[in-house]
Structures are given as structure tokens and as C-alpha cells.
Design brief:
Layout (H helix, E strand, L loop, with lengths): L1 E5 L4 E4 L12 E7 L3 H11 L18 E3 L3 E10 L7 E10 L2 E6 L1 H10 L14 H36 L5 H32 L6 H66 L15 H22 L5
Parallel strand pairs: 3-7
Antiparallel strand pairs: 1-2, 1-3, 4-5, 5-6, 6-7
Helix pairs in contact: 3-4, 3-5, 4-5, 5-6
Length: 318
């Protein structure tokens, strides 16, 4: 799907690249959702844009994700795709600015998440954008809001999980697995927002004619810094939660070992007595004694009771 954002505050939806009017004076934003290689090649030929940024997304260096030439600026970054049950998935966003037109290349999944999760209450048709850069900065704000929404979702899940753990007396591997999932999702947000910050810092280095553009980007950087603090808080909460669960699991294991120790000691003394009188040596006077058997059984019972009393005095048994 192709969306055209016009200076008249209209949004047109098209199906084919060939339907786009390259001579339109009121066009300042083109959003291509769920694009293909064929569509990418077609729009590159139609508008004369360089698509090298699309083939460097696997590189780590920021120079591979932010390319600037005399007449074109292009960059890309990944954002986590929200998933309510399992791990987040990274999706790429590509942005190209050329000849007062901003091109966005998104997957269909990202666009759906923006609609469902972003708390932005603005309506494109109710805001007057005087330039493509104003609309571009507005889009940056939406991305910041998206990061904030994801971070808030993770924070709520961690707090809810924290309460459940505090109120529960039973823990298993699923709890630790959930911590790993939350940690991974939080890490994806942190990595994504870090790359996004680097790109915004590079954008500020451009000398925009409108000073308000730089001001707005700086404001978004301030918002992202606050989000980063919350991401760090989430890591700390998860670390505390993992330590808490591990400590309680260790306590449960200690109780099990203590019980096994009590059982072993209580049984070992009667077993020792039974073993001695089960040797059947010739010179064992107790074998011919009339009260030998009941005395041995009584001694085993007494040794068992003495062991229980000992552990009771040590407060190992309640």
C-alpha cells in the first residue's frame, strides 16, 4: 500500500508506484507499506533516489545506517514489533529525504503496531504542516511515543509479575523463562532506542533553515532520554526479581535437603543396630538371650526417637 501526504492535509492511498505524480507540487511525504524489491526499484527509478541504505542494514557501524550526499539524506533503524505473549521481533524502518519529499518504507506489521499502540492523539488531517521537514519531525515524535508505549507495556508486565511472585509460594522454571523474555524484549527496546538517538544526533548536525526543526528534535531527544531511564529501571527490577526467585528456590531446596538429612539420620541409627545384630557371629550372647529380639527392636525405636528429639531441639522440625 502507498500513502501520499499532501500539503493540503489530504492523505491519498494508492496501489501502484506508477500512479504517483512526480510533478505534484503539494506532495511532501510518501509512505510505502509492505514494500517489495520490485517496488523499491520502481520508485528509485521514478524519483532518482539512491537505495544503497537498504543493502547495509546488517552492518553495525552508524555510517552504514546514516548516509548523506549532496541531494539526499537516508537512514534506517529497527524498532521492536510488539507481541503480547512472547519475544518481540525487530522490524526495519527506512527513511529517505530528497527534493523536499520524505520517503518512508515500512513493513505492514510496523504500520499496524503504530495504529494500535501509539498514544499520539494527533490527526494528520487536522495539523497544518508548512514543510516536509515539519511532517518528518512529527513522524519522529510518533516513533518516540511508540518507544514510550512499549516501555510502559514492559513496565506494567514486570510490576504485575513482581506482585504475583511476592504473593506466591511456588516457583518453577517458567518464572525464570518469563524473566528472560522480559529481559530480551527490554534489551531490544534499548538497542533500538540507542540507534535512534545516534541518528537524531546526526540529524541535528544538519543546518536546517527552520530553527524549529532542530528545537523539536532536541525535545524528542529529551523525551527519549527519559524513556531510556525507564528502560534501565526495568533492567534493575528484573535483576531484583531474578535474585528474589533464585533466593526463594534456594530456600526451598534447603528445606528439602534438611528433610532428607533428618530422614537419613533417623533411619541410619536403627539400621546400624539392625546391621550389628544381623551379623550372626557365634560369640554374640544376645542371640541366645530370651529378651534379645524385643530389646533390639526397642533400642532401634529409642534411637529413632532420640534423633527426632535432637532435631526438634535444634528447631529443624516444627
Amino acid at each position: 500500500m502507498i500513502e501520499l501526504y499532501l500539503k493540503t492535509n489530504e492523505v491519498k492511498k494508492l496501489d501502484l508506484i506508477s500512479e504517483i505524480d512526480t510533478d505534484a507540487k503539494d506532495l511532501f511525504n510518501i509512505r510505502i507499506i509492505d514494500f517489495t524489491d520490485c517496488m523499491l526499484k520502481e520508485i528509485a527509478e521514478k524519483f532518482g533516489i539512491d537505495t544503497a541504505i537498504f543493502y547495509q542494514k546488517e552492518d553495525i557501524e552508524i555510517s552504514s545506517h546514516y548516509l548523506k550526499s549532496q541531494d539526499q539524506l537516508s537512514f534506517n533503524f529497527s524498532i521492536p514489533k510488539y507481541n503480547s505473549d512472547t519475544l518481540f521481533k525487530e522490524e526495519e524502518i527506512f527513511v529517505i529525504i530528497k527534493k523536499e519529499v520524505v520517503f518512508y518504507f515500512l513493513s505492514s506489521n510496523i504500520d499496524k503496531d503504530f495504529v494500535n499502540l501509539t498514544k499520539t492523539r494527533y490527526d494528520f488531517t487536522s495539523i497544518n504542516f508548512s514543510s516536509h521537514l515539519e511532517h518528518f519531525v512529527f513522524q519522529i515524535g510518533i516513533i518516540s511515543d511508540y518507544y514510550a508505549d512499549l516501555t510502559e507495556i514492559i513496565s506494567r508486565r514486570i510490576k504485575r509479575f513482581y506482585e504475583n511472585i511476592l504473593n506466591s509460594k511456588h516457583y518453577d522454571e517458567k518464572d525464570l523463562d518469563l524473566i528472560m523474555i522480559l529481559n530480551f524484549n527490554n534489551l531490544l527496546i534499548k538497542e533500538s532506542i540507542s540507534n535512534f538517538q545516534r541518528i537524531l544526533h546526526l540529524l541535528i548536525q544538519n543546518k536546517f533553515e527552520l530553527k524549529t526543526i532542530t528545537t523539536k528534535i532536541n525535545l524528542e531527544l529529551d523525551d527519549i532520554a527519559v524513556i531510556s531511564d525507564h528502560i534501565q529501571f526495568n533492567f534493575e527490577r528484573l535483576d531484583d526479581l531474578e535474585d528474589n526467585i533464585n533466593s526463594k528456590i534456594d530456600l526451598e531446596q534447603n528445606k528439602i535437603f534438611r528433610t532428607l538429612t533428618i530422614i537419613t539420620v533417623c533411619i541410619s541409627l536403627p539400621t546400624l543396630i539392625a546391621g550389628i545384630y544381623g551379623m550372626n557371629f557365634k560369640n554374640m550372647p544376645e542371640l541366645n538371650w530370651k529378651f534379645g529380639y524385643p530389646s533390639a527392636v526397642g533400642l532401634m525405636i529409642i534411637s529413632f526417637i532420640i534423633a527426632l528429639i535432637y532435631f526438634k531441639m535444634r528447631k529443624w522440625i516444627k
